[in-house]
Amino acid sequence: MRTLIQRSRMARGQALVEFALVLIPMLLVIFGTFDGGRAVFDYNSLAESARQANRLAIVDQDTTAIKDRAIEYASSLGLSTSNVTVCFKTATTTQRDCSKPSQDDCSSNLQIGCLAIVTSTTAFKPVTPLISSIFSSISMSSTSIGTIEYVCPTATKVTCP
User: Fold this and answer.
1) pLDDT digits (tens, 9 = 90+) for 20-62
2) CA-to-CA distance for 119 and 57, rounded, in angstroms?
3) What residues contact 34, with CB distance under 8 A and at least 6 apart?
4) Cβ–Cβ < 8 Å for 140, 124
5) Model confidence at 102, in pLDDT bands (50, 70, 90)?
6) Count of alpha carbons within 13 angstroms of residue 79, beta-carbon side
7) Of 15, 33, 111, 140, which alpha carbon lies 20 to 30 A from 58's?
8) CA nearest 89: which of 47, 146, 155?
9) Strand order through the sheet with 84-89
10) Roughly what angle, to the nearest 10 degrees, separates helices 63-73 and 2-57?
11) Which domain covers residue 153, as residue numbers?
């Protein structure tokens, strides 16, 4: 009879140890999924921000208004004007970003067919302690490119969208 009681206690102790060993990876998967979902949401917000700003850029080339539109559509990310870049390139350019602003620049002679390029960037910070110790911050960026459909006259700004 005594051996049966002792075995029962040992089995309970074994289950506790196994649970403790499984708990940490299980929590890491749960919180990692949570951080992954946040990262996808942030990236989708960033992409929508760039798209909406580019929709404005193809009809109104006011860079301040374009940056404001990008910030407005990514309000959950806390973007500022330094997180949004806007440039206008010639239709034949091979560039797909604003890293070289003077190359193939179209902003001095805007015309229908030039490319409007809007890039939004942010840094994603995971909240899970283990993941944030591995990746303290992850840089995210989204670029939207559109062809200028209407050149907004600067003198008569009232007619622009």
Assistant:
1) 899 988 988 898 899 999 999 999 999 999 999 999 999 999 9
2) 12
3) 127, 128
4) yes
5) confident
6) 31
7) 140
8) 146
9) 84-89, 115-124, 138-147
10) 160
11) 2-159
Sequence-distant (6+) residues with CB within 8 A of 70 are 49, 50, 52, 53, 79, 83, 84, 118, 120
Q: What are 6-20's pLDDT values in tens digits?
A: 666 666 678 888 888
Instruction: Give the three-class secondary structure for 9.
Output: helix
**What pTM value is reported for the model?**
0.81
Conformational region of residue 113, where left means phi above 0, alpha means psi within -120 to 50, and beta covers everything else: left
pLDDT attached to residue 9: 61
In terms of residues, how long is the chain? Answer: 161
Give the rounded percent of residues in the chain with a pLDDT score beyond 70. 88
* Number of domains present in the structure of the chain: 1
Task: Identify the CA nearest to 81 among candidates 92, 70, 90, 95.
Answer: 70
Closest CA to 67 of 55, 78, 77, 53: 53
Higher pLDDT, 9 or 99: 99
- In 10 A of CB 142, how many CB atoms? 20
